[in-house]
Each structure stands twice: as C-alpha cells, then as structure tokens.
Amino acid sequence: MPKPLTSLFNLGRSYSLWVYQWGLACCAIEMGAAFGSPRYDVMRLGVIPLPASPRQADLVVISGTVTDKMAPAILRLYEQMPEPKYVISMGSCANCGGPYWDSYSVTKGVDQIIPVDVYVPGCPPRPEALLEGVVLLQQRIKNEDMGARWRGEGHKAIVRDPIVVGGGPVE
Amino acid sequence: MTRSWSAVAPLSDTTATTETDVPALPGDGLREGIVAQLRSDIGAGLVDTLVKPGVDVWARVATESWRDAGLALRESGFHYFCFLSAIDWLPSPFGRGEDDPSAPPPERRTEIVQGYTGGSTRFQVFARLTDIQRHVGITIKADVPDDEQVVDSWTSVFAGADWHERETHEMFGISFRGHPDLRNMYLPTDFEGHPLRKDFPLLARIVKPWPGIVDVEPLPGEPEEADTEGNGE
Amino acid sequence: MVSDVTDLIDRQKLSYIAAQAADARLNVELETEGMTLNIGPQHPATHGTLRIIARLDGEQVIWADPSAGYMHRGYEKLTEVRTYPQVNTLINRIDWLGSFANEVPFILAAEQLMDIEAPARAQWIRAIFFELSRIANVSLFLGDLGVQLGAITPVFMAFRDREYVLNLIESATGGRFHPNFDRIGGLKDDLPKGWIDETKQVMKKLRNFCDEIETLLFGNEIFQSRTRGIGVIPANVAQSYGLSGANLRASGVDWDLRRDQKIALPYDKVDFKVWTHPDGDAFARCWVRLQETREATLIVDQLLDGIPSGPVMAKVPRIIKVPEGEAYVSTENPLGEMGYYVVSQGDLGPFRVRIRTASFNNISIVPWVLRGVFVPDIITILASLYFILGDIDK
User: Fold this and answer.
1) A60 CA: distance to closest CA in chain B (Å)
2) Among C24, C45, C67, where does a domain finish?
3) Nearest CA to CA, how far is C9 from chain A (Å)?
4) pTM as predicted
C-alpha cells in the first residue's frame, strides 16, 4: 500500500474511535468521569463514548475486576466487535488481577481471555491516565501497518508489544 | 430551603411518626432482660450467653431450637433481620498463605477453639437481629452437627434469610432444612468446593511463593534485620 | 399512615387490573406464552453487572430472579489471609463510590476489640469524611436516576459537582476515591491548610446542586408519574428483609444508625434531621436520598465549625495484633447499614470477617417487589432501590 494512503487511513481511524465501555467495577466510575464528565472530556481526542452496540465499536475499555463468571461474556463481546479493533485494559484488576490476585473467583487479568493493546495501571487510574492510554494508542494506530490487517491476520496477530501507560515512549 | 413544586403536593404527610408503646421487659438492664425473655421462651434450648454491658449481647442456642429462637426473638420485638452466616472454627492448615516452599512447614495450631459463648462443633451458624424500638441488637449462634451439616431454615421466620442461607450453603456446605430453593448465590453452578471452609486453599498463594517473603525493606532509620514477618510496614 | 400505604397498593392493583382488562377486551382470543427476558449482566441501566431473569406475560412480570455473583471477588476469604492494615486497603473497594465509609465500621470494630480510643480530632475528621463520601455517592445516584428514567442532563451535572468533592478528598488523602485514610487508632494524616474553608465553599455548591436537581428532576411531571406509586414496600416487609438506609426510611420506619446507636463518631454533637416518608414507593426512596444529601452538607458545616484540636493518631503498636474476641459494628453508610462482624483469635489478621452489606439485603427484596410490575417499572424500581454491585457481591 502506498505510504501516503496508509497514513491517511490510519489518521482517520485513530481520530474517530468509537469506544465501548465495559465498565465493571470502580474503574468504571473513573471511566465515566473520563468519558462523560465535562472536565476530562474524551471527545476532544476524537473518541466518541457511547456506541449503540459492540458491533459498532472500534475500541473497548475493560475497566474493573474480571471474575470467572463474567469471563465468557467478555469473550463474547470481543468476538462481536468487527475488525479493526483495539482493547484497553484499565486498572490493575483488569491488568493482572490486582488486589484480588489470590481470590478463587477472579480472573487474573483480562489478557487471559482477550489480547490487550494498552495497559493502564492504577487503582483506579486517574481519568488523565486513561486519556494518556488513548493518546498512546492513537500514536500506535498512526504507525500501523495496514497490510498486515488486510492479509487477514486480525487483531490477535497485531498485538505484539502491548503499551503500558507510564512505561516509556511508544513507536 | 426545600422548594415546593407548584404542580404536585406530596402524597401524604411527610413527618415521621414513631411507635411509642414499648413492651416492658423482665429483669433489670436492657440486655439482661432480653436474655431472660429468651430463656423463658425457649427454656433449655438456650445454652450459653454473654452480655457485655453497654456494648452487645451474644447467645448460643441448641441446634434443635435454632428456628424457635428466631421465632421467639421476633415475637419479643426483634423484627429487623440483619444477617445470617456461619463460622468455620478450624484453624487454617495453610496459615495465611505466606509459607516459604523451600523451608520446612511451620508448626501450626490444630485444635478447634470457638469464640464467645463457646461451642462444640467445627461449624456454627450465627445470625444478627435488631430491635428498632429499643435500639438494641443480638447475635445468636448455634452449633452445626459435625456428621451431617444441616440446620433448620429461617425463611419462614424472616423472609430475608432466603438469600443469606443460599450464600452460607454455597460458601460452607451447610444445608438448611425447609429452604425453598437452595442454589448457588455467587459462584457458577459448576464450582467445586466450598470456599469459606478453612481447608479450601487459595491456590494462587500455594502455586507461587508469596512475594513478601524475601526482599522486605526496613523502614528508614531502622536497623537491617532479616524480617520474615512479611507485612512490611 | 398504614391505610395510606394500603390505599396506594390498592390503587396500583386497580390500575394494573384495569390495564389487563383493557388488554383482554382487545386480545380476547389471542393465545400468548410467557417470555423470559434477560436483563444484564451488562446493561446501561444496572449499576454494574447484575443480571435479572424475568418471566413476562405480555408486559407484566410473573417472577423475577436476580442472579448476582458477576462481581464476586471473595472478600471474606481474602480477609482471612491479610493483616488488618491490608484488609483496610481491600475493603475500600466494596462500595466503590463512597469508599471512606467502608473503612469506618471495620476500624471501629478493630478498635473496640483492641480497646483503643482514637483521639477526638480523629473522630471528627472521620465523621466529616464519612459525610463527604455520602455526598459523593448519592450525588452520583441522583444523576444516574435521571439517566435510567431517560433524562440525560442530570448525569453531567452530577459528575461535575462530584468532582468538587473528589478534589477535596484527594487534597487531604491523596486518592480520589479509595482514600485508604483510616487507621486503627486514628487517621493517617491531619488536614492540609485551607481545607476547611474550601470545604465550606464546596458545601454551598452542593446545596445549589441539590436544589437544581430537585426542581429539574423531581418537579418534572414525567418523573412524578413514573415513580409515584411504583414499587411500594410496606414497613414490616422492609424490616423482615433487612432493608436499610433510605429504603427503610422511605417506608416510614424512623431508624438511622447515626442517631440511634452509640457510636464513636461525634453525631451526638451535631443537630440533624432524619428524613422519612410514609409512602414506601420509588418516589419516596429517591426523595429521601435527596433530602439526606442536603442534610449531609449541613452536617459537614456543623462538624467543620467544631473540630477540636489535638493529635490525629493514638498510641498504637507498629505491628497490630488484635486480642481475641468478636465485635460487630455497623454504621449508616450511603447505601444503608454496613457492618463488619470481626472474629479475632489474637493473630496479625482477622480469623473471620462477615461483611454485612446494605445492597445484599436491598436486592434480596427484588423477587418480592417485582411481581406483577410492568417492564419499564423494573428499571425504575431498581434505580430507586440503589445498589452498588461491589456491595451486593462482596
């Protein structure tokens, strides 16, 4: 694919993300503050918060503790999203199990179920941290190789080094 | 400060009214009186009591009188159902899950010691009721027989006991005779085991050694010492 | 008072019967079969992952069964393997909107077992943060209430005004929610300079917010007709299920743990009114919560005026070992009565903690109250009962 066309498509995609909020627990409130409150407005980044269904979403933010009972629903949601899709895991419960790492009913991180692009650490992360995660994801989308997606490799193959917010520069 | 809407008036008078007829209690002292009333209601079913003056009151009843005790307390004014659950008095064979797998297993206490008002079995059910008129609460306990963990259900006495008994059943394995629908509350249907029993291990703590064993930094200004307590500050 | 409630129930029944009769006149020979509707676990109108399976006959519910457990994290088992300060960090996250309020009953129970009294200044500051967490929690409820009934605007106002309270909590404790500020024997730190004046300004803003919501939402005709007479819970049913907080007071029961129970926090030194409503319907529950929020701002003002000076932490050993014993302490949390039954056997951590959460009891009444209710009213009743999933599922 010619470079200018790729970068144009990537630019368009990164600035028009529809994000589905899968808000489970405390992080959902910070996600609500980031997406719905007038102070940490997410729409200025081009991200629109409330799609009508996961089938119209580009990005999903998993925020909150993932329990074993809830895990099949999350997988189902992920399968419902059409390509190209991105996943942000918000909060330490979704990253790795968090404060409940030793519990009998908690899935130790949502990356055991679905591949994750961006990890936003925190308990709960500030809304600004989530916005930083979105901005870093947008940087990565701009540098994405569209050919890989069109060769049919899908999201699971694209995710190779996940971004960790606060973990250094991203190419 | 409260604005009145022009369109609608409140449905009824919104000032609170409280009931003023409080039945007189036998005996002196509020909590002693409650214990005396319970003893006169269920007689020999009341096995042991503990009253901390000004703080709280505990009572242990025989397993056969569990439901009768609930009924008697409800009749004597305890209409508010607070909660119902169970305690497993076996000391955990895994300690607090902080064992170093390279070290020999530490010595642990293994005999069962019950708490307030004693007891003779490993499991005990306990419930808490509140009397709203007299502003007092009571904790009632009962032993659960070791061979067959069944007690009577309280659903016919307090409707709210339904969900609490379901949770106790799935967490401890105690069955409730007379409960209409004893299925899992929190856990998926195919979950094996009863999590709140002390011999149910938290596998994440056993599979990997607990990270706090090694590398515990002393506080600034403290002498360097090998501290295997593990809880840092 | 009781006859008013039965009047309401009768009126509700009559209206349902009339609706069914109208239906029947129209569809007299239509054979229908019931439908099973699955609400949740992810649904914009449930405050989290609650799943309700409702069997419907047309538009009416025959039976409804809430299926909780999608956020069950195993708190009671986790507390057995943690030390007391670690448990304090963990239990912040049970009711995740008003987090400081979760720590308070546990700390008070541990202090009761250790026979330690926190200094007066610490108790007053605890009470201030307790009321602030109530305001933060219920102001989100008021915003969410609008969203669940279809009014989108109050949510933005609620988030905006909640930010003021969260800023206050953050400037004193470092965390917007989950402050983890309470310690056995007192508090972690004293208040920063200028905090008291700023809090007074914020309380004025929140009173304006309450007034705005009252005219905007509660004065709205659609809101009134959607919530009056819906989901009536009589007082004796409420008590036998163990409802607490505003749900109980909206059914006419005058019970508030801040006033009616001897507790270490200085509520006996401030004047406040306990709001009740005799109707027991959805409107009553929402109305009582609104009044309580405004009352909480007044309580905070009084507490700020009277804070005693002194230390904020009592003399407590560095490694905390609580002597043997059992204690139950419950407080009037934003959601209702929350209590911890702490069993200690002299170790570094508790032996067993039974967490009595308000929403567990509040939602256990859902099968009873949703019988015979129309589908749109399901959401109204759930919104008025106000639960947090972490509170139900522990």
Assistant:
1) 25
2) C67
3) 36
4) 0.86
Distance CA A87, CA C58 (A): 39
Sequence-ordered list of residues with C-beta below 8 angstroms from that of B226, at least 6 positions apart, any chain: none
Q: How would residue B85 be classed by pLDDT, with cut points 50, 70 and 90?
A: very high
Between CA C55 and CA C41 the distance in angstroms is: 16
Residues C161 and C238 in one domain: yes
CB C75 within 8 A of CB C94: yes
Q: Say which of B54, B187, B200 has its CB closest to residue C69.
A: B187
> Quick one: C334 and C210 in the same domain?
yes
Q: What is the pLDDT of residues B28-47, one digit of tens each?
A: 578 888 888 888 888 888 88
The length of chain B, given as a count of residues:
233
Are C60 and C94 part of one and the same domain?
Answer: no
Better-scored residue on pLDDT, B104 or C147: C147
Residue numbers of the domain that contains C56: 2-67
- Whether the upstream peptide bond of residue B101 has omega within 30° of 0, thus cis, is no
* Chain A, chain C: beta-carbon pairs less than 8 Å apart: 81
Contacts for C98 with CB less than 8 Å, ≥ 6 apart: C133, C134, C136, C137, C177, C333, C334, C335
B229 pLDDT exceeds 50?
no
Over chain C, what is the mean pLDDT?
86
Domains in chain B with CATH codes: 29-202 (3.30.460.80)
Q: Which two tokens stand for residue C208?
A: 């304006």
Find the mean pLDDT for residues A92-115.
Answer: 89
| Same structural domain, C135 and C57 | no
Name the closest residue on chain C to residue A68, using Cα atoms.
C70
The CA–CA distances, whole Å, from B34 to B27, B28, C210 equal 8, 10, 43
Report the number of distinct structural domains present in chain C: 2
Residue B205 touches chain A, beta carbons under 8 Å: yes
> For the segment C284-319, what is each residue's pLDDT rounded down to a tens digit?
999 999 999 999 999 999 999 988 988 888 888 888
Instruction: Give, as one character, the DSSP assignment of residue C251.
Output: T
| DSSP letters spanning chain B | -PPPPSS---SS--S-------PPPSSSSHHHHHHHHHHHHHGGGEEEEEEETTTEEEEEE-GGGHHHHHHHHHHTT--EEEEEEEEE-SPPTTTTS---TTSPPPP---S----TT--SSSEEEEEEEEETTTTEEEEEEEEE-SSS-EEE--TTT-TTHHHHHHHHHHHH--EEET-S----SSS-TT--S-TTSTTS--HHHHHS--TTSS-PPPPTTSPP----S----
Question: Percent of chain B, pLDDT > 90?
Answer: 16
What is the CATH classification number for the domain harbouring C279? 1.10.645.10
- Across the interface, whether the CB atoms of B85 and C221 are under 8 A apart is answered no
Residues C218, C354 within the same domain: yes
Do C283 and C185 lie in one domain? The reply is: yes
The rounded distance, in Å, linking the Cα atoms of A135 and C163 is 23
Contact call for C77 and B195, based on CB within 8 A: yes
Q: Mean pLDDT across the stretch B66-74? A: 90
- Please say which residue of C67, C94, C114 terminates a domain: C67
Of C71, C81, C155, the CB nearest to A67: C71
CB-based contact (8 Å) between A37 and chain B?
A: no
For residue B209, give the amino acid letter: P
